[in-house]
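dumping the sequnces here before i forget
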Amino acid sequence: MTSSLAQFLASVDKKAYKMANIATLNSQDALDIVQDTMEKMVRNYSKKQPEEWPPLFYRILHNSIMDFHRKKKFRNLFFFWQQHEQEGESSFEASNSFSGSLSGNLSSNEETNPDALLAKTENIDQMLVAIEALAPKQQQCFLLRCWQGFSVAKTAKIMKCSEGTIKTHYSRAVTKLKIQLESLDA
Amino acid sequence: MPKIIESQAKASLDKSVEQLDENIESKLAQIRLNALSSQTKSQLISGWAFERKSLVSAFSVVVLVFLFASDFISTEVSTKAEPLLTQNELTQHGLTQNELAEDPELLDDLEFIYWLSQEYEDV
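..and the predicted 3d for all of it:
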């Protein structure tokens, strides 16, 4: 059981990291979320049937990501002066076509070498930028349905909401992505 | 249009995963190892805790048995220490303490003797 669980974790770790990175826009926060998720998975659900592992794993991941957003909101409420500084940075990044995904994936070489940074900038995937700009629940719903391939029913269980809500989130996410991509192309 | 968005999104996300930094990949591998090793640790700890609980339970049972047994023994001793009949009562029935000591079977009949004494008193 342990070896199959190890194989399962190896098959989902990169995608889980990417989902967390898109949500948090920070590499270390994303790694912390993945670590927390894996530990809870191993501790609480290792004895479940293997076919149950994927929805369980992504449910824990989703909860961890939502907890992150709640804590961030709480922090911003009380440390609003720091929030203004962060907003300034993000608008600078937006005006220079910096992707939020860069903040998590820059190596030290790219951070110090302008040519490497420029090369990375030119390879910005506009779709990732658009996904990062989605509201948290729409983003999670879109990633679980479209990328992870979960059904409406399973996604509803993972996100602990109704199937109707999932359909609404997904529809709005797709519409926003379409608008975002059209504006970026323009 | 939604299908185009979906396929483009999947392709972009898959590509971004393939292009993950080596540093991030090694950190993820470490995270996996830590999580799986924590399972082994928690199994050991829970096993030790179970053994400890078992020992405590067994000890409690032994203490309870000892207390019960000592209470039972003390009750038995106290019962045997107090004579059922006084010397006067024994004399009335033609018995002495020595005879009772010599003939243990009389001890078994003491209750009957006491009852008889009550019957004769009523008469």
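Chain A touches chain B at residues 2, 5-6, 9-10, 13-15, 17-18, 27, 31, 34-35, 38-39, 41-43, 46, 101, 105, 107, 125, 127-128, 131, 142-143, 146-147, 174, 177-178, 181 (CB under 8 Å).
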